[in-house]
Amino acid sequence: MSEFKWKENQPKPSWTEFFTRNVARRQSTPYVKTCSSAPGSVNVERRVNSLRGSLRVTKFNESEDNSSDVPQRDRIAWQTISQHLSLQIQQRRRSELAANLKRTFEFDQENRKEIVQRKNLIDETKRSSTILEGKPVESVVALEDEILDETSGLLKTDVHIVPLEKLVDRFKSDLTNGLTDEMITQHRATYGENKLTPARPPSFFWMIIKQLLIGFNGILWIATLFAFLSYKPFGEPNPDISNLGLGVILILVIVLNALFNFYQEVKSMKIVSSFMKMQPSIATVKRNGVETQVNAEELVPGDIVRIRLGEKIPADCRLISCDDLQVNTSELTGESVPVSCTIKCTDRNIMESTNMVFYSSLAVQGTGEAIVVNIGDATVLGQVGKLTRGTGESEITGLHREINRFVLFVIIAAFISVILLWITWGAWLNIKEKGFVTVNGNIVNSIGMIVCFIPEGLPAAVTLVLTIVAKRMYKQKVMVKALATVETFNSVSVIATDKTGTLTMNQMTITALLWGKQGEYLVPIHSNKVENQPSSNDRKRSSLDSAATCGAMKDLIFGSCLCNNAAKQSAINGGHVEEAAADDAIQLVGDAADVALYRLCTDKCSVDIERMKQVNPRINSVPFNSKNKFMITANLLEKTSADTNTDDTVLITLKGAPDFVLSRCSTYKQDDTDEALPITEEFRNTIQERQEELGKSGYRVIAMLQQRMPKSQYDRIIEEYRESKLQRQNQQAIISDEPDLNGLPSNNYCFIGMFSLLDPARPEVPDAVVKARRAHIRVAMVTGDHPTTAAAIAKKVNIFSKEVSIDGGIDSFKMELQNPTGRPQAHFMRNKRTSLESHIISDIKTSIDTKGIKTTSNSQVKSNVFKRMWMSLLFYLQDPNQAKDVNKLKLIPYAVIVTGNDINSMDDYMWNWVLSHQEMVFARTSPEQKLRIVMEFSKRGEVVAVTGDGTNDAPALKQADLGVAMAAGTDVAKEAGDMILLDNNFSSIIKAIETGRLLSDNLKKVAIYLLPGGSWSEVIPVFFATWLGIPLSLSLFLAIIFCMLNDVVNSLAMVSEKAEHDIMSRAPAIRHKTHLLDWKLLVHAYLVVGNIECFAAFFCFFWYYSAQNIPLSSIFFTYGDYGTNPPINKTTDELTIIQQNGQCIYYVALCVMQMFNLLTTRTRHVSFFQHNPFYGKARNWTILIGIIFSATVGLILTLVPWFNSVFKTEPVEVKYVCPAIGFGAALFIFDEIRKFFVRRYPKSFLAKMAW
């Protein structure tokens, strides 16, 4: 940190100067995103995270060209401000301690021990910041006030240091009841709304300027310049007025094209911005003594908010209480490891203190309660955002890369053609046939080459198609963060989906209570809500009262009340909280299982849970997380009149997955008595069998354990835990794999019983899965549930189909860790009976890079400048994260079930075997394992779309090619996803895939339409005129009009095409092989359609010459001797008029051919008559409008006298373009026959050549 130090006699730089210099220093190092912590921080965990972050790189291309996106700049700003504050705090502390030391020495020289201590304190301060715990708060505040005076107003706050009581008084709040309505009104008037000032919208003026200059328009400006130069001075002494008109036409075309793109871009921006209004951010807040939910924008300082797992922090808050709370601040700080929160101030720097949570952070574990201290622009994110707002670059998506490849091809082809033209002129024509083509004429021909090669309709088509996609997504309730990412759906080959909340409704219902070996009570459930209940024969209890005589039954109900985090909250109505007295204004919030248990206790058992929790207060807890798969609570039991024991009793309740918690039990309660017996192997097998039986019907099973102990024993255990934890921290002991249970016992529990829960499948899911399978997309379930339950749900939603899993079989494997070979071995099984093979597990390979991360040393990057430039160019043409040259696995017609415990032991051979199955279920998976599954799919060339709604889905959502989150899911999941299903409808994914395929199809159709007529049939006349010495068959003016008007309008009509009926029966596009512009499309566009159109137009052109008694022998290879050698009985003016007529005939013939090309290229594989534009589902009247418009333009150009005189056009006789109609019909019939054979013989050579 020496580079940040300044001398005492030098003025201290302001935080703005400090930030600017630090950002420049950080961005001068390519590839690496520095994440250093504040120099004075002693938060070990954050220092480690920062060191890790300094080795992490995101999107290496952005670093290579010294550009950065907004999140990266925000993180740099965060780190810089944090360092600046820590430096000022550290330096101020030195000065304060030095002054105190001097005064103390002068006041009392005998107190040398105190002096030594102060010196040691100064030395310690020079090394690191001092944790504030244990220091008098008053002195801290006094010192901090002086420090804050020098921070130039940046984050000038002491809210993390002052006592909590003072902070509450400052905002006139109450920890128990929250703010009153009166104080809310006052605070809102003082502090405003809790929302960031939006980034300044892009200037319309600069948007238009950008559209005028970028892309093909930039090339057209060059052509325009040379058009004016060809008029004067190159055209002197006899300048051609048509060249001047050509320049004017080019300018008009550029302006109109830019205005159209600008209009469509603004329209798309408005549609996308409307998405944000569909998904308001909700916060749980305590006001007037009632816990309710409000829009996060309505929060004010002093509000008491509750923070739950998976939620986004709604504002800058100071924690009041926290229960194993961890927040992910990666979007703000760049630190990937979650920060463990506390209620104590751990650093004088507010940005490093763990008792603060900041707006936009995500709660990834635990729960907490906090008081809002800053909102809106006053938050840390608001302060940091001011430094970086509006400086980001738009993300490069697959669609952008495809367009870039197209542009690069056009530029290369155009310049090669121009260079070839000038080489031909300089090396041959200007020497052998001097005067045939002048310099000015060659400039005009070069302009024609450039204009002809540019598909002017493509940018407008891309803009329009994205607008159409935005409208469709808006209607389908799908929120896409970047419209261009929809194109990726064209390549999706695997959908890895979570079960709960995605395939199912996440509305769990308790169906049965089970205890002992046979004890069971079936909860009465209305038949129209839950289907497929287990058979109740010989098991159904007559009533709950009769069953409740058993002690295990009572304990199950009692545990459901205490070990439960569900809570009642007031609902929102128009942004205002309803009166709590209204029944319809109260809603239950919390985990779906907790809500189901809550309803069981209140609705079926008439238990007052709130009073139960009040008289049996919770004193400790361990929240549920996806790794432990259990939750523990400790409650101080209420004393009864019959209780003679003076010591209080603590009830510890644990609930979780039976296969995870059964090993923690030592006893169990019997069926009909309260006596607890030691657990035997027979009992374990019984529990497993009952769980398997329920799982086969799709039920989820939760076990409940209990343990009672005297309060004195509990206090002793907690005290020992605290001492051992402090000792481990001091010794920096290695972290154990055993979860931290906050001092609660990990074993010796009594097994009370189990609950069976049913979460019904979403009704639209089975059909959606069938459609996905028809589209050659595999749907893999990745869930944390038991394998049997997961398999049952998979069958209900058609992930396991009858044809594959039932008729074929379900594969699995068993791990054998100890065998004679000395190496772990896997036995592949089918239907748990048939042995397939045995495999000795090799070394596990983990060489899979995380998405967007590239590890490259700075020395390597700096030493190879040319490689950096080349890689930067390649980034805009191909995705650096996609698997390259990877052949997909050959699929086998069987299903497979894999459990999470086996995933960590799988080698590449086993992954290949598992991922080659057509149907897959991964059960009992952790977030890390879900992430690994996605990475293994990607490693094998699959394009993965991951769906999910829970916090544990976030890593996989972020890693996937497309992350699809549910609106009903957690904020963490929605933050990680690329798109959000606002209606939580799984079938919307299939619609999005169809939209992505349609987008790709329509852009290909635009390209296949534009290339034959717009480039090939216009370029060939220039080369023929130059090489074969014939008159130019198409004037530059007509070529430009053809490209800019005729083709552009028809290409835009093509964008509005509906999906072909076979679009969802094709295989997904292979990303690294399938491109918008590939060799198949070029062959079809140029060698097939282009040559047919060019031949037809030339046929009409030469037929007209023959009708004028000019034979072909008098045309070809005449060059400058045309009309004289061999002689033609025509004057020069007559030959000029004949050429102008011929050019107009060529132009009209080309328009006619393109009309037929428009009708044939509307479909890729389907017949025109099955997808006609006149009626039915495929109706597209814009095609007819385009054809009429094209014909109208041709008539105006050839018949209006002004165009005839200025641009030298002539009227066209119909008979000379009639052959074009015949050739067009032949082209149409030829393409229909081609499509028929492609459909009939999908594996033929013709099908492989199809575009």
Would you give an account of this structure?
The chain is α+β, with helices and mostly antiparallel strands and 1251 residues long. Among the domains are: 164-180 and 277-391, Calcium-transporting ATPase, cytoplasmic transduction domain A (Distorted Sandwich), CATH 2.70.150.10; 455-477 and 1000-1057 and 1074-1249, Calcium-transporting ATPase, transmembrane domain (Up-down Bundle); 479-506 and 761-816 and 892-984, HAD superfamily/HAD-like (Rossmann fold), CATH 3.40.50; 509-524 and 549-568 and 588-638 and 648-725 and 745-758, Calcium-transporting ATPase, cytoplasmic domain N (3-Layer(aba) Sandwich), CATH 3.40.1110.10. Helices cover 47% and strands 14% of the residues. The chain has 41 helices and 31 strands. The strands form five sheets. It has an eleven-stranded mixed β-sheet with strand order 8-31-30-29-9-23-28-27-24-25-26, with helices on both faces. Strands 10, 11, 16, 17, 18, 19, 20, 21 and 22 form a nine-stranded mixed β-sheet that branches. α1 packs across α4 (70-107), α9 (204-213) crosses α11 and α35 packs antiparallel against α38 (1181-1199). The chain starts with 14 loop residues before the first helix and ends with a helix. The model is unreliable at 1-70, 104-155, 388-393, 527-548, 573-584 and 852-863 (pLDDT under 50).
